[in-house]
Amino acid sequence: MMLSWRMCPSIVKSTMILMKISKRKKTKKKEEEEEERDKEKGIWRGMKKKEKERDDDGEEENQEEEEEKEEEKEDKWEKGKNKKEQKEKWEKGERRRSRRRRRRRSRRRRRRRIEEERVRITGGLSLP
Questions:
Q1: Residue 35 located in a structural domain
Q2: Is 30 inside a domain boundary?
Q3: Is the domain of 64 the same as that of 85?
Q4: Domain co-membership, 85 together with 59
């Protein structure tokens, strides 16, 4: 069923709520069926939770170790990547200039441009 807000917002909202409720009921039924199967196998609720907790603890430790390893790999890769990029730039002649140097260059360019503009306008004559 396609729901659009043009129909009527209140109707759509109520149907969305009903859909959520029905979904909850379905999941609850599945959980109950799973519990029944577990009882048949001889596993009760508390035992299952303890096993899950043990598994979760082990999984969390493994995940943390894996994440740390991945971070280390990424750091190494980034360092290597940066070194390669710097080397390539150095070979091309592109160096990162300091802020002071860039400002000086831009000031010089600005002064030169202004001076050229003044000379062009006045025809080379400077005013006293």
A1: yes
A2: yes
A3: yes
A4: yes
Q: How confident is the model at residue 108 (pLDDT cuts 50, 70, 90)?
A: very high
**Does residue 106 lie in a domain region?**
no
- The token pair that represents 104 in the structure block: 């000086």
Q: How far apart are CA 11 and CA 123, in angstroms?
A: 79
Residue 45 has pLDDT above 70, yes or no: no
Number of independent structural domains in the chain: 2
CA 81 vs CA 68, 76, 85: distances in Å: 20, 8, 6
| HEC string for 6-54 | CCCHHHHHHHHHHHHHHHHHHHHHHHHHHHHHHHHHCCCHHHHHHHHHH
Q: Is the pTM of this model over 0.90?
A: no
Take residue 12 and report the two structure tokens written for it: 């759509």
Model confidence at 86: pLDDT above 70: yes
48 and 20 housed in the same domain: no
CB 38 within 8 A of CB 48: yes
pLDDT (0 to 100) of residue 47: 64
